[in-house]
Automatic annotation (TrEMBL):
It comes from the Bacteria. It comes from Rhizobium hidalgonense. Pfam families: DUF1194. Residues 1-17 form the signal peptide. Keywords: Signal. This is DUF1194 domain-containing protein.
Amino acid sequence: MLTTVAVLMGLSGLVPAAQAGANEVDVSIVLAVDTSRSMDFEEIGIQREGYVAALKHKEFIDAVKGGLTGRIAISYFEWAGYVVQDSMIDWQVIETEADAIAFADKLDARPIATQRRTSISTAIDQGANMISTGPFQGRREVIDVSGDGPNNSGDPVTPVRDKAVASGMIINGLAIMLRPSDAPGGLDKYYADCVIGGPGAFVLPVHKIEDFAIAVRRKLVLEISGLSPPPTMETVAGAGPLTDCLIGEKQWRDMFYR
């Protein structure tokens, strides 16, 4: 698939703009990464390694260089029931391989920790705020959410999702499905119905931890290039009965008051 994406990008004929505004980038991406305690330290470590490897990979660099301006802006934070404030890596322009490695090294240096609960709504709200107050003007603005369970804390997820989408942002998802999901129909369907939104939004499932790095790299390449996965590899919102987007809150309430 990544080879196909690279070919499609090559056929697009896009070349870096000779003169781009100082704050203009092809895409602004916020990486919002779940570090809730439903994943153990080994899994979170492999997840971290997946992001670091993806950011250093040639296909990621080539995707950046293949854009209209040849540069993107990227930032990062971790979340669970709340945003982990000291996990935030501020906006950085990626234009060269050295830029990408520098950002990946900042991420790699972060300590690994877990937190309680799962608030996708808080993650989306934080990502939207970072984009709207950030210094860069992206042709596309993407909140990239990875997670392993439905929203069970904070505000309901769909109103927050809808507000971000209404402002012109795209929300894509990486559904971490290493264990059976609390979401009926699968976590990827929950993400499709309740989390992702905007033009070309997609969710990619990860069923095996060893596939994580490839999935992250593939998602980043698609986001930078503005492409979508083929239908056979993409969960489409609205396929089958709609998911109850409050399922996580209901399950948490039932467990707490049992």
